[in-house]
Design brief:
13% of the residues lie in helices and 46% in strands. The chain is mainly beta.
């Protein structure tokens, strides 16, 4: 012991006195400091970042000589040699281009955008600071080829290359490697419970299928959001944003967005951070009273169904409902109940409260790191799916444990949610009506009054007016105590026959791992990885068929990738990449997803790339297990054991009873898949009276959807001009979609007798099934982006995107693709980060061609729109602050991006950001 102790003391002293402390600055070619620049020792993960004044201090146990690298988004990387301890060094970074920026998502390894084997878009710190949008997430809609559909003020849905809905389970969103989709809905709900702006390091977006590396949900693309590591980004940062939203329907309303970040490196081993975000505003009010089916109809029409009017979905053929004694004088027409406007069923509160925290441990003070990250968020928003939902006090939490270094990661996390006080606004309107007067009593009174008026000599129009006035007598009106009491009962009752509460406490567990063998193998870069996920659905029967308990199921995948760089000569470099992934869900056979790509770099300024890949997506939790009466149709998933779990009892008409049927019939969801007609043929029967037009549907049970995709692209530099072009062609097989079918209460479809009589007697139920189309579905498109410097230091960029669906709609009238994408889009921006000292500005313009929106809530045309956003900003280095004033939709021309949503108005804001490097 006496021998060992002095040795240990000597060793400790040697470590203590072998440290080198390097100080310096990082500035641009105009001698302006670059805050937030990365300074790292080449070949290690030891590094730091510059402060607001561009200064840095780096302490290391390495003895010189070694190389130090400085880099920052938008600048060229510089490497300098360190030859002595306590050396002071100044880096001067020349402004680079967007193609010099480094991305990780395209190949799961760092590489320049210029060399990426597939199309990738990046939104870094520079772009976030200069965006003219109100926040970084909104700024994504200015990226080339990106569509952002606005569901509400706090819920925007990002998509690429078509097939967009707000329930966008074709597009994946990852935050520091964690899937941000909600367990209940199986898709991301924008940034409602996502990242705070002060913690965002970068955003990367991969358009198109990426199943070969990222699995089943990476079908249309992936959005990667990376946060700041507290080892690299320390201190306290705050952003305060205040303003107003302005909309014709909702008026002018206050808007507040606050974010806070605190990070501290306790030592070279331990660091921690915490973030907090708060957003409060008033949502874009949806007030359209246009009829869903026939836009020319008004409330004066008998079967009116307003877009944002709820309760009028309940309708009946009054002749079918009439007793035999008066049936002869009752017209064969459909009449709907009077509904309530959406603005009377919600307060349009838009709110988001979120916090996250992280503990980071580097036991050996190198690249090996252990992380624990927790995220909690709650908020209120509007979601449009089959119906319109007020998502109130929604709660989601995530907890992740990750071990990683430069060559591998192993992570596991859990995501859970609670629906809070959320409710279905359509069923709220329906059940307020029913609380006052049942559907049976309402139509009975309508028919009796109509018959009496007709016998008294009234015209048909007068008789209908008298019937509605009488049946509406005593109706609960908004603002009255009776209405409020019925409203409160409905939104707290999860039984959709009497209430509208959206109830859920689902969760999923996920783990994934990746190992890069590049440090062990020289001839190529080889990666191997895999993932596992287990779902636990728990909606208590309000969404899924889980009334008897949670539904659990799992899926897994493994993948590998090999990448080889070949230097053909001094002017030609070839990068070849091949990858393949195998995925297996417990309900379906396994799938292989290969990808092959090649990138040829010419003279270091031009890159030509091509790739071919296949992808697939498993049916979602809703595709498999939903069991929901949405009013116009019952949604029933097609997992094999789901068909018999959904059970309903229906009343049979007097005509049906006369045919020997009972007073009621009990059916399961199986009838929609095994005893159904197409909805279009049933409508044709109603129009023609010819039973021969009926077509049997009986859709197949759902299975995974596949896509084969080919892409070519070019990136190049022509002096100050940057060009980025891509084109793709997608061919889909077993395209997943919903198909509305009609099942008779009695008879067998195709019998040409009893089932036809059931349809004629209105003894049938409409179902929305989840299946695969036999139709050939293809899509193709292209994007080109140009950026340059003009008039000296002014940034000018623009992009054009073309997207086209190839599908025979006439041949398959009951099949909806939900393409929901404009054929033509154009975007442009113009600005200067230093118009004069510390003052910058940016103007962004977006144009969208008109397009047809189709979804379960409704179908309709989205008109073309033009949008201008603008901002000016002032940096005050002495306060480490940036002040910004901006406006979105500066022209004030209200528009919408989806049928049924509120018009998007304007937003005017000012912000103060402190120490956000």
């Amino acid at each position: 012991m006496k021998t060992i102790l002095p040795f240990l003391m000597l060793l400790f002293c040697g470590f203590s006195f072998s440290q080198s402390t390097i100080t310096g600055t990082v500035v641009d070619d105009n001698s302006q400091p670059i805050p937030g620049a990365n300074v790292i020792i080449v070949g290690t993960s030891t590094g730091t970042v510059t402060d607001f004044d561009g200064n840095f201090t780096l302490t290391t146990n390495l003895n010189p000589p070694f190389a130090l690298q400085a880099s920052s988004v938008g600048f060229e990387t510089v490497i300098e040699d360190i030859i002595s301890k306590n050396q002071k060094i100044n880096f001067i970074l020349n402004e680079g281009t967007s193609l010099d920026e480094v991305v990780i998502s395209a190949s799961r390894t760092p590489e320049r955008i210029f060399e990426s084997p597939v199309t990738v878009e990046r939104f870094g710190l520079k772009e976030i600071k200069n965006t003219a949008s109100a926040d970084f997430y909104g700024g994504l809609e200015n990226l080339k080829g990106v569509d952002v559909n606005t569901n509400s003020l706090t819920f925007k849905s990002v998509n690429t290359r078509g097939f967009a809905t707000f329930a966008n389970n074709r597009f994946m969103q990852l935050v520091d490697g964690m899937d941000n989709s909600t367990p209940a809905l199986n898709f991301p709900i924008g940034n409602l419970v996502g990242m705070t702006e002060t913690d965002v390091l970068s955003v990367e977006l991969l358009p198109g299928a990426s199943s070969a590396l990222y699995g089943a949900n990476a079908f249309n693309g992936i959005l990667f959001m990376r946060s700041k590591n507290p080892f690299d980004h320390q201190g306290i940062s705050t952003s305060i944003k205040r303003g107003i939203t302005s909309q014709e329907s909702a008026g002018d309303n206050a808007y507040t967005d606050v974010s806070f970040r605190a990070a501290y490196k306790f030592s070279n081993k331990i660091a921690a951070k915490i973030n907090f975000g708060y957003l409060k505003g008033t949502d874009w009010a949806a007030t359209s009273e246009v009829d869903k089916i026939n836009p020319e109809n008004t409330r004066a029409n008998l079967d009116y169904d307003g877009i944002n009017v709820y309760g009028d979905e309940v309708s009946a053929n009054i002749r079918s409902e009439a007793p035999a004694s008066v049936k002869g004088i009752i017209p064969d027409v459909v009449v709907s109940r009077t509904g309530y406007n959406e603005r009377d069923l919600t307060n349009y509160n838009a709110e988001s409260i979120k916090t996250d925290w992280g503990l980071y441990y580097r036991p050996w003070e190198n690249d090996f790191e252990i992380q624990y990250v927790g995220k909690v968020g709650t908020g209120s928003t509007i979601y449009q799916g089959t119906n319109r939902y007020n998502i109130a006090n929604f709660f989601q939490q995530q907890h992740k444990l990750e071990i990683k270094n430069d060559n591998f990661f192993l992570r596991g996390y859990i995501v859970t949610d609670k629906a809070g006080d959320s409710y279905d606004m359509v069923f709220t309107g329906i059940n307020i009506n029913r609380a006052w007067k049942s559907d049976e009593d309402w139509f009975k009174q309508y028919i009796e009054t109509y018959a009496g008026a007709t016998l008294g000599g009234a015209s048909e129009t007068e008789a209908h007016a008298a019937a509605r006035a009488q049946s509406e007598s005593g109706r609960y009106l908004p603002g009255t105590p009776e209405y409020q009491a019925a409203f409160n009962r409905s939104i707290n009752d999860p039984d959709l026959s009497t209430g509208s509460k959206f109830q859920d406490a689902s969760k999923y567990y996920h783990s994934d791992a990746n190992y890069n063998f590049s440090h062990l193998i020289d001839f190529a870069e080889i990666q191997l990885g895999g993932s596992y996920r287990r779902y636990s659905l728990n909606s208590s029967g309000t969404i899924y068929t889980d009334l008897d308990g949670p539904i659990d199921y799992s899926e897994f995948g493994i993948y590998t990738q090999i990448q080889k760089n070949l230097e053909l000569n001094e002017d030609l470099d070839l990068k070849l990449t091949g990858s393949v992934r195998y995925d297996k869900s417990e309900f379906f056979d396994g799938f292989f997803s290969p990808r092959i790509s090649a990138g040829l770099t010419v003279n270091r300024n031009h890159n030509i790339r091509a790739s071919v890949q296949t992808g697939f997506r498993n049916p979602t939790t809703q595709d498999l297990f939903i069991g929901l009466d949405a009013g116009r149709a019952i949604l029933v998933g097609s997992a094999p054991d789901n068909l018999d779990r959904y059970v309903r009892t229906f009343e049979v008409s007097d005509e049906g009873r006369a045919l020997g049927q009972g007073a009621t019939v009990t059916q399961t969801g199986r009838v929609s898949y095994e005893n159904s007609y197409t909805a279009s043929s049933v409508q044709e029967l109603a129009d023609t009276g010819n039973p021969a037009v009926l077509e049997i549907s009986n859709p197949d049970i759902i299975k995974p959807e596949q896509v084969s995709s080919a892409e070519v692209g070019y990136r190049g530099k022509f002096k100050n001009l940057i060009v980025d072009f891509s084109a793709y062609y997608n061919k889909y097989k077993d395209f997943i979609s919903q198909e509305v079918v009609v099942s008779p209460y009695y008879g067998t479809v195709g019998d040409n007798s009893l089932s036809v009589a059931a349809i004629a007697n209105d003894d049938y139920q409409a179902w929305s099934t989840y299946t695969n189309s036999q139709a050939d579905v293809n899509s193709y498109g292209a994007s080109i982006g140009l950026s340059t410097k003009v008039f000296g230091d002014f940034d000018l960029s623009g992009s054009y995107t073309y997207a086209k669906l190839d599908f025979d709609r006439v041949k398959y009238p009951d099949f909806t693709t939900n393409f929901n994408t404009p054929e033509h889009k154009f975007k442009a921006s113009f600005g200067n980060t230093e118009l004069f000292e510390n003052f910058g500005f940016n103007i962004a313009y977006r144009y969208s061609d008109d397009y047809f929106w189709e979804a379960t809530f409704g179908n309709g045309l989205v008109p073309e729109y033009h949008v201008v956003d603008a901002q000016i900003n002032l940096k005050v280095p002495s306060f480490k602050s940036t002040f910004k004033a901006g406006a979105t939709n500066l022209l004030g021309d209200e528009y919408f991006t989806a049928f049924g949503t509120g018009n998007i108005g304007s937003m005017y804001y000012i912000s103060w950001t402190i120490n956000n490097l």
